[in-house]
């Protein structure tokens, strides 16, 4: 960390804490789905504290809308990758996760994952190419930004931060097997003690579990390096000298981790990894009347809110019934929560009569 950059980040943090009007000028990298939903309230809070916020938005975005009225400045760019391509990739990934993965061996899953990831990286780099070679880049150079804030899920923020010489702040939940945090952020994670994210292991591992965890890390690292080959090539071409994407990611000053240490298994952290779980939460409002009644009627067991996130829009009747029958086995009452984009949950409500099932799902009724 260069001292100048560190100072800059510290100054910004102090400014944000003091709620001072002399805010910083923050550039925000584009993202999608729940990542964007998570980020938006944070940006609102930054504006409340007197910062200026500029958000990059690709023309083919599923969730970001540069024409909506907003307090932050949207900086749109035309992407050569059409919306339909993103929809297709997401559809393929979701179909694989919901309907295929359970019937495949680890190796088969790995191969399919790599196939989807390579396709995704190819289009993501095309997307990035549209941005860095457009007029947008010239506007960013003139933008006099103090800081880049990015969710690293879409690569490129580290490249643009490097080119514009901006300190980079990441916001991240986790990467699979903590690959980015370990390999790029230098987070120590001994495989005998720290279960890889999404390995389904806990911190209570016997010898075979530890061996499996070690192999899980190794296979995910190979996967990451394989995918980075393309990114490195792109970054090197753009900068004009050999450049490693992971090394640029490692230059991030601060990693804001969207959880808390007590939700995770104990593991070592570094001082520039900060837990900010719930940063997007707002003070609770009273529940709507029908929901309040539902909660009050739930008794000691309480309720479970069931939602399929931002990307799943439909589901086969068979899978719907499977979920409903699983939910029927828990003592809590279940409420299906429709989300803005999700037709899926409303089809759960309509097709299989989820609302009625809510009553039927409660074994005491
Ligand atoms: C984007 O926002 C504008 C203005 O609110 C609205 O008219 C338009 O329908 C929105 N576009 C999408 C794709 O939601
Ligand atoms: C995107 O392309 C359209 C049509 O070519 C053009 O009118 C518009 O100004 C471009 N937008 C940006 C942000 O470059
Ligand atoms: C869900 O919708 C997508 C695209 O709209 C379609 O390709 C897919 O077959 C649908 N899946 C199910 C299970 O209906």
TrEMBL record:
Keywords of this entry: Glycosyltransferase, Signal, Transferase
Secretion signal span: 1-23
The keyword DNA repair is assigned to this record: no
Family, as annotated: Belongs to the UDP-glycosyltransferase family.
A Pfam family matched in the record: UDPGT
Protein name as annotated: UDP glucuronosyltransferase 2 family, polypeptide A7
Stored InterPro entries: UDP-glycosyltransferase, UDP_glucos_trans
This protein's encoding gene: LOC115365261
